[in-house]
Design a protein that fits this description.
Layout: H1 9-53, H2 55-71, H3 77-90, H4 94-130, H5 136-168, H6 172-196, H7 199-225, H8 238-258, H9 265-272, H10 275-296, H11 303-310, H12 316-356, H13 371-386, H14 389-392, H15 396-404, H16 408-461, H17 465-493, H18 496-499
Helix pairs in contact: 1-2, 1-6, 1-10, 2-5, 2-9, 2-10, 3-4, 3-5, 3-8, 3-11, 4-5, 5-7, 6-7, 8-16, 9-10, 9-16, 10-12, 10-13, 11-15, 12-13, 12-15, 12-17, 13-16, 15-16
């Protein structure tokens, strides 16, 4: 009788990689569905929400979100969570995963105390910061929105560690399924709010309620399906805690200064410009976030694969070759996605803005802007901000590799430099040129960030940048230029509004 063949380590590795690939494929499909739901929400409901609540009130929503985002950061712990959990999972240390999860959650609960103080301070300071440009009723609405969005963040930020656990176990399909459910619920709540006349408060209530439901689903999945327990009696050793905090300090700098770019812009415009400029840039952020989501959707899928490579026991030369090969494969895929999205927007984006916002009047007591002019501003702002994503998105694998290899300090320094450049320009440019000035400030900071980041990738990861750019951008760039030329030609001869009558979506 033949003996059953023992499963070798190589077979186990192959099995793990097959499962990983399957999870990525399913997760990618569901992820793009989630993005399409978000885009549908933006196309169909954003103009109707603005029409129902008024452009100024929609600007208040963008301003409140900007303020809450600035204050209620996770102090860099999300990057720490993803990096450390990926390493612990790759090593098969389930107990380590639970101890780390418990320690991080306790840190989040301590941070919530600080968050409450911040929210309270901003609540009472709001009339003094924005009273000159907003009416008393608008200030009252803004305070309510800050409390609602801030209160949700007090719950959602600590519970983000459960998303990190699910991602570490490479259950991407569940993460994206929950995203779809959340977006559909938000979609339904928004329609109900518009129909019943609940205003911007009703819309935000729906956003918060759907977000809380998604948090509950992730917590239940982590505990029941993955059997990963959150036990606050557990913790990490002092040595492990020092290592985590050391990593988190640099991650904190990245978290803080990353928010001093796009996230802070509505706040800057609210201080030095007008409410209508805040509204315009809030719409810029809406489209920019869709473009970014399409490009970076799969980038987090490869963190576990990177961690497995780092503990594989291979030689440094083999690891370097694997980094080069993996990052180029990921980069090619992401360049195709982000390139096609941006080429499509450049080709038809200006006309699309007219179709999307054709019945939205950008008016306020302070100034009146013709809708066509506002739409052009939004279009050019998006192009200025998003053009750099063609280089940045395909390099996210290199950024993740820097984190996994504990080269986080140079990435933090780069984030600081980018934020300082943006802020030093933004207040001046936004004062004189409004939203377009803010976009130019971000664009300049983005270009400088790319140059310095690539120097860091060359120095710390020891990759061949020449080979990297030739493999991804040279061949892909030619294809994208041809695609853009075809898109512009088609648009010239066949205008968008003659082919796709989407005005009915907002009628």
């Amino acid at each position: 009788m033949k003996k059953r063949k023992a499963i070798s380590d190589d077979t186990n590795i192959e099995r793990t990689e097959r499962k990983s690939k399957k999870n990525m494929v399913i997760g990618s499909l569901l992820g793009y569905i989630a993005i399409f739901v978000s885009v549908a929400y933006g196309l169909i409901l954003t103009p109707r929400i603005i029409d129902a609540v008024g452009a100024s009130n929609y600007g208040l929503y963008g301003l409140a979100t900007s303020i809450a985002t600035l204050l209620l950061m996770d102090f860099g712990l999300s990057t720490t969570i993803n990096t450390y959990l990926a390493k612990l999972r790759a090593a098969g240390d389930k107990n380590g995963v639970e101890r780390f999860l418990s320690a991080i959650f306790k840190l989040y609960l301590l941070l919530d105390i600080i968050f409450v103080v911040f929210i309270t301070g901003v609540y009472f300071a709001t009339p003094h910061l924005f009273g000159y440009d907003y009416s008393p009723d608008q200030i009252s609405t803004l305070q309510i929105l800050i409390l609602m969005i801030g209160g949700f963040a007090l719950v959602s930020v600590p519970c983000s560690c459960f998303t990190g656990v699910i991602s570490t176990y490479e259950k991407f399909s569940y993460i994206k399924l929950v995203d779809i459910i959340q977006k559909l619920l938000y979609f339904a709540f928004s329609i109900l709010s518009i129909h019943l006349g609940w205003g911007i408060i009703g819309v935000v209530t729906g956003n918060v309620a759907s977000g809380l439901f998604a948090v509950i689903l992730r917590v239940i999945y982590t505990r029941i399906y993955l059997n990963v327990k959150l036990d606050l009696r557990k913790g990490v050793s002092k040595k492990e805690l020092r290592s985590i905090l050391s990593f988190s300090v640099w991650s904190l700098l990245i978290a803080i200064f990353s928010r001093l770019v796009i996230s802070i812009t509505p706040f800057v415009l609210g201080v030095v410009s007008t409410d209508i400029q805040v509204t315009i840039f809030s719409l810029v952020i809406t489209i920019e976030s869709y473009i970014f989501m399409f490009g970076e959707m799969t980038s987090g899928f490869f963190l576990a694969k990177i961690a497995r490579n780092d503990i594989s026991g291979a030689s440094e030369e083999e690891k370097k070759e694997h980094i080069q090969s993996l990052s180029e494969k990921i980069g090619k895929l992401q360049l195709v996605v982000i390139g096609l999205i941006i080429c499509g927007f450049v080709s038809v984006g200006l006309e699309f803005m007219g179709l999307w916002l054709y019945n939205v009047q950008f008016t306020s007591d302070i100034e009146t802007i013709a809708s066509a002019d506002a739409q052009r501003i939004i279009y050019y702002c998006i192009i200025i901000i998003c053009s750099y994503e063609i280089i940045h998105i395909p390099q996210l694998a290199l950024q993740n590799e820097m984190f996994t290899n504990n080269h986080i300090k140079p990435m933090a320094i780069i984030a600081v430099i980018k934020a300082v450049i943006n802020l030093s320009m933004s207040f001046v440019m936004s004062h004189f040129y409004g939203a377009i000035g803010a976009a130019i400030s971000i664009g300049v900071a983005n270009i400088i960030e790319l140059v310095i980041a690539n120097i860091a990738y060359k120095k710390y990861l020891k990759i061949s940048l020449l080979h990297y750019f030739k493999s991804i951008y040279f061949k892909g760039g030619i294809t994208l230029i041809v695609t853009l030329a075809i898109g512009l030609s088609l648009h010239f001869f066949l205008p968008l509004n003659d082919r796709i009558p989407i005005k009915f979506l907002v009628d």
